[in-house]
Amino acid sequence: MRDIVTIPFNSEESLIIACDNSGGIGMKEQDHVHVPYEMVAYYAFRVAVMECIAAGGEPISVVLHNFCGNEPWNKLVSGIEKGLSELMLSDVRITGSTESNFQLLQSAIGVVVLGKKSYAKITDFALANHLNLAVIGLPLVGNEVIELKDQIAPLSIFQKVSLIKGAMLWPVGSRGILYELNQMFPNEKITQERVVTTVDIMKSAGPSTCFMVYFQPDQEEILRKITGDLFHNVEIKK
To answer: 101: Cβ–Cβ under 8 A, 6 or more apart, which residues?
Structure first.
């Protein structure tokens, strides 16, 4: 199951709702990880928007829940705008609110991305011998996100891959690749021993630093051209 909610609009379109939260990461003294608020919002937006797009949604609005105080608001919005710019989405509106009555000791935000999906777009998975699987980027978490940022799948690449006809995408979250494989193919009961790849399938991917793509064999060349060294083959043995 994807981390989204789908609500039918009419006979042709549905609403996709995706979200992500961040806590203890920011510029407050008691935060566990100290990074600029632009980065906090950027990565929370990244997770939510990747889930939305992978589910077939076209982002139309972003809602920001800010518990960091009034001052960081513009920086948080700037981080979301950076992500929208990478996706070349200029018409997506940002709204939200700030908890200003009480000051929290640690930073916290929530980001919701709303998108619209055409029923014509297929995003359901079924394991098939005639399709290939790959991981784009590496699973990274914590300070690795800063230190190994060149191994993170950029939003621009994620978007380009999402436009390949018939290719299906699945962002990897904090529970790792193996967990996500079993979400993609719930009837398969995939174990660590069945997966052949050079990527650590047990490691957290933090703010979706990598994603999986399920594609036709003749699409591999264009995928490699788009993703370069970020492309990693995955084989699931019977």
So the answer is: none
